[in-house]
Amino acid sequence: METKLRPGFTTLFICLFLLPTVFCASNDGLVRIGLKKRKFEHNNRVAARLDLRDGVSLIGHAEKYRFNGKLGDGEDVDIVALKNYLDAQYFGEIGIGTPPQNFTVIFDTGSSNLWVPSSKCYFSVACYFHSKYKSSRSSTYEKNGKTAEIHYGTGAISGFFSQDNVKVGDLVVEGQEFIEATREPSLTFLVAKFDGILGLGFQEISVGHAVPVWYNMVNQGLVKEPVFSFWLNRNADEEEGGELIFGGVDPKHYKGRHTYVPLTQKGYWQFEMGDVKIGGESTGFCAGGCSAIADSGTSLLAGPTTIIAEVNHAIGATGVLSQECKVMVSQYGETIIQMLLAEDQPEKICSQIGLCTFNGARGVSMGIESIVDKSAGKSHPGLHDAMCSSCEMAVVWMQNQLRQNRTQEHILNYVNELCERLPSPMGESSVDCNSLASMPNVSLTIGGKIFELTPEQYVLKVGEGDVSQCISGFIAMDIPPPRGPLWILGDVFMGSYHTVFDFGNERIGFAEAA
The organism sits in which domain of life (predicted)? Predict the structure, then answer.
């Protein structure tokens, strides 16, 4: 029997090299798995653009959302340290089999299955760049063989179910059903540095109705309390990315008390959210209540287009492609006009000025080459995709204007106006890094309490110096009924507010992160 699901993957900004894991025991009786991080490089931005272009970011998530006590103290609590990737994605390490075969996974509260690449993945290039599970090397492996398929954006990850022991932190879950992926066709998984996904959602949305890892932790008595909690360190300069604690919470990672709200629907960690405010003023959008979920597998904070457009307008956000198109015009516009007047071949102009490569017929993006070209002399590698596309469009626009005998000033102004009207790919928007002080706070109401986000909390900075870029943490996504409309509180929110997932009492809690 074949099982299919369309959850999509939310892996904005996922190209990161993970350094060796450091194991240590703390004096509070908890086992901590320390992860090293490497400083973000602008080359990684290219992977983000490839990710967006492949449709596996938040838009892919839209497919996914169409599916229909006392916390533990130091005892019987397990901690998995998380890897922070530019405030955008968090990773940790698990082991599968006996002896354990290690994998880096995203701990995703917005899905419910565990999957990793299989040694039987022969025809997907991505599998050769990641750890692969080898059942022949595990003494606790049990064959299942039921096929599974996970759809996302432009393709699907497919494979089959197997059963084996799974080690998470210091806990060993016995007989865990998971998916061995034998096909990973997307370029996203080629450049990504995570191996798989460990879902922490409910069994109701599990592929093949497989029992999730978390359920088995509880059922096998591995945790004292049926609770897990996330602390996501938003300081990208610090070595520690965060902590995921099974069986309790760490008081060092939050201030005050948690505000708890009951779950309104199982599947995702879904609850009711109240009014959304911009600069302290009510938008009235959720005054009567909105559905929301806490999703550690989503990088940004997603909501209905109507209100997100209002938020992004208030913070001065513009479409990334629009902005880069205007940058290209300011830097190369006059040169392109002069080359057209000199009757250079239009299809070669963008490659001649270094924004594209030429394949014999037209310019093509240099983005792929910039992934492997790590030489220090290359500047703006992450912008080549958009710059190449913008250049090619500008050449066409300028040609048409020159045929009408327009002046250079008129042509440049006209092309800039067209740039402003370009749609944002996947809804991604940028803001002026120098304007954070003038941006308003944005707040969400949960359980009658106001949870405020400052510009420093909802803006993600990519790169440094002259090539830095600031991305709005708000992105539009319209989830259709009956699941939607739906707000998705991803890492932007969870990084600011420590989050407790109280499985036993079917509730979720938030407190200011320390």
Answer: Eukaryota
- Residue 308's alpha-carbon distances to 291, 322, 338, 427, 475, in angstroms, are 15, 18, 41, 10, 6
Taking only the tens place, the pLDDT of each residue in 198-244 is 999 999 999 899 999 999 999 999 988 899 999 998 887 777 888 89
The token duo for 108 is: 């995703």
Please tell me the pTM assigned to this model. Answer: 0.74
Alpha-carbon distance of 337 to 330, in angstroms, equals 12
Point out which residues pair with 301 in neighbouring strands. Answer: 474, 489
Q: Give tens-digit pLDDT for 265-287.
A: 999 999 999 999 999 999 888 88
Angle at 325 between CA 414 and CA 473, to 5 degrees: 125
Residue 73 has pLDDT above 80, yes or no: no
Q: Assess contact for 296 and 468: CB atoms under 8 A.
A: no
Assigned token pair, 181: 């992926």
C-alpha dihedral sign at 200, 225, 82, 104 = negative
Tell which residue, 232, 208, 216, 226, has the closest CA to residue 168: 216
Judged by average pLDDT, the poorest of 34-43, 330-339, 355-364, 445-454 is 34-43
Q: Which residues are catalytic?
A: 108, 295
* Spatial contact of 18 and 35, defined as CB atoms under 8 Å apart: yes
d(CA 244, CA 183): 29
**Overall average pLDDT of the 116-125 stretch:** 94
Query: In whole angstroms, what is the distance from residue 383 CA to residue 364 CA?
Result: 13
Closest CA to 294 of 122, 100, 110: 110
Distance CA 161, CA 181 (A): 9
